[in-house]
Amino acid sequence: MLYRVNLIKFFFPIDDNLYRIREAEALKNVWRVFLLLLLLSIAVYTWMAGLGLGSQPVSETATALGGLQYEVTKFWFVLGRMSFAVLFALLVLFIPSLIFYWLTGIPYKKLLVMQQIVLFVMLVERVLWIPLAVFWGLDWHVSPWSFGIIASYFTEKTWIIYFCGAISLFQFWIIWFQARFISFLADGSRRLIWTVVIILHILYWGLAAALAVADIYLLGGWFG
Fold it and tell me: What residues contact residue 179 under an 8 Å CB cut-off, 6+ apart?
């Protein structure tokens, strides 16, 4: 049985596609979809950089730099965001797939399809946040579907706010989807699968918070 990967059609319905992936002897379009997601990631983060999202340390140097030098600085900022987009996409696609492959024995290529759906949903979340940032000035960690705004009422510690901000309704869906996908294709304990998936996401939220904090200091040091 041949399964053709299609990001949009995968959601209609999900269980039918999970069954077809489980029974599939070969997968088609995996690397084409991979390339598409890589380009989409670059496009989204380039768009964000072009709008100036996250570029406060760069903007603060505008008065101190000449026109040409400031444009060069913005160019390097955009280039850095594009590089981050590539790294982000590769990590989301390949690292969790490898971990779940070691733990479950599910064919790696099928797990890669799972992570392609995950990356697609994460990019959708990011795109939906962009208008909120542009028109209402909301940072990603205080978006309406994240828990960062709630955390900001209880603490002023930046890392905790970023950590809670990385937890969103989209992330809850991803946790459910990954647990559902792996349970459908593997014979292991569902409780163990849910535990592993949740632990990996906690680690991801911690890493996202740490990178967000580090990004402030790196940009400030590099462009300040």
Answer: 190, 193, 194, 197
